[in-house]
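User: I'm writing a tutorial on reading structure tokens. Could you give me a worked example: one chain, its sequence, then its tokens, then a sentence or two explaining what the tokens reveal?
Assistant: Sure. Here is the example chain.
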Amino acid sequence: MPRLNACPPSAPGQRPAAGHRARQRPVALTLSLLLGLGGLSLGAAAQSATPPAPAASASEPPAVPSALDAPMFYQLMIAEVEANAGRLGNAYEVMLDAARRLNDPALYERAVSLAVQGRSGDSAAAAAQAWRRAQPQSLDAVRTQVQILAATDRLNDLGEPLRSLLLLSPPEQRNAIMAGLPRFLEAAKDRPKMLQVAEEALEPYLDAPETRTMARTALGRVALAADQPERAFQLARRALADEPAAAAPAVLAIELMPNVPAAETLVQGALAQPGMPPTLRLTYARMLEQRQRLVEAVQQLRRALADQPDLPQGWMSLGAMLMDMHRPAEATQALQRAHEELQRSPPAEAVPTGEGTDRLQDLLLQLLAQAALQQGDTRAAADWLGRIPGERVTLAVLARQSELLADQGQLAEARRRLREAPAADQPEPAARLLAEVQLLRHANRWQDSYQLLRDALQRDPENSGLMYELAMSAERLQRYDEMEALLRRVAALKPDDAQTYNALGYSLAERNLRLDEAASLIERALKLSPGDPYITDSQGWLAYRRGQLPEAERLLRQAWGTRPHPDVAAHLGEVLWAQGRRDEAMAIWREGLAGGQTADAVRQTMARLKATAQ
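And here are its predicted structure tokens:
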């Protein structure tokens, strides 16, 4: 079964543009910080503006003169004036000189900030190094140096500061720092060197009971980033062997599943431990979804929500997956529960309040509208979409609204809206075109979608995405020679695209033509995307065309059990019907019909075989 998709920096000393300059810290704010800088008084400058202080008693020690005298105060003010004028190079030099003179951490930090604003990695690294030399025991200094060196990919200089950061950190903070180490190193281009630096820094902590779990997990993540998944797997296995209920190595094992199938055994073992947080099961479910194992993903989500039902993002994921399985009624129940939980308690720990929560709300409303459309309830769909504020309407929302207009006989207006209406996500013209193609297909205007895509491909003749979509429209119009030619062009441009080979192989099997060639194409697709249920469905349908009914049933049941889709139900039901097992066929077809508006293939198959739903 084929898939139908359609849907120059300034350096210090250079003057930035006005928009950049406007983001500099205002002078007034900086001066207010200077007044309390480093616990120092204003010295002579302050004395000129305030009455003399009472004389100290004989028992009090003599006051220590402040280093922040009037000349230094004005030096700092000049640095900030230079920064606000956009002369960041000058500001940096003046600020770093002041930091060295006063040995004040706030000024070193400000010098680093000015260098970063000026996009000068060399200057930022120099300021951080000066801070380290002046204050070798400062945790803030070494942390800043590690951040700068990692961000600027200076791995050769990173080893000693990283080891010092872990050594100087309080023991109760060391695990948290190790957990953040992979993120520190993510910008590195030299992956083997990145792994070496991490190994040298973490080696003292790999066997200590209080740090070994996090040290192994952090090193495992770096190993995975360095394309050494087997090394990462061994580290996760050792971590979970010593601490079976640890969440961090279990999450690493989940991330390893695409590369190391045995990692899933570690995940399942960890989930069996008492007290494991439900969020780990949510993470596992999302990986199962990515692996196209939707039935198992839904099972894991249901278990997680049974343990912790007040997770709106969990209910939302469940609803989205049920939608993908074409179960709109069940999806609606899950999505409505997500809506209730989100209204009751926004997931602050998972989604920040404000803009992030708004996006989550809008996506939820779109899913509810989609579920309503699958059930043929256009009024409910319009109601859900209408709750999204106009200024947050995206192209996806416009597409749903346009489908509703088309269903009311206003196709021309629907197309105009997709082309011209403003969208919050500012989509590219190509995205608007594909949305219009999908609208035309929704309205069963395949000839119009074909012409629209053909015109677009003439303007962009090497666009493989447009070729694929045009091939799908051509097939629907029974232009099979053109469809084959287009898909072969896509395969030449994208030789690793599994769906192209699958689409071509399935089309041959569907038309009962050149079945050996169809088998070769589908096998190639499966090698590129092992376990893909869409390709497994194609395999099953090919076996049916060859008269291999038991093998066809096995493959189609595998596809149905992994990712239930009405098209798979249509195929599996027909194979059962051909074997005389009509009650089983009818049961599968009834499940497929639960997809509502997306179950056309089931209805067409039943009509062709003259099977009547009970």
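What the tokens reveal: The CA atoms of residues 347 and 421 lie 32 Å apart. The radius of gyration is 32 Å.
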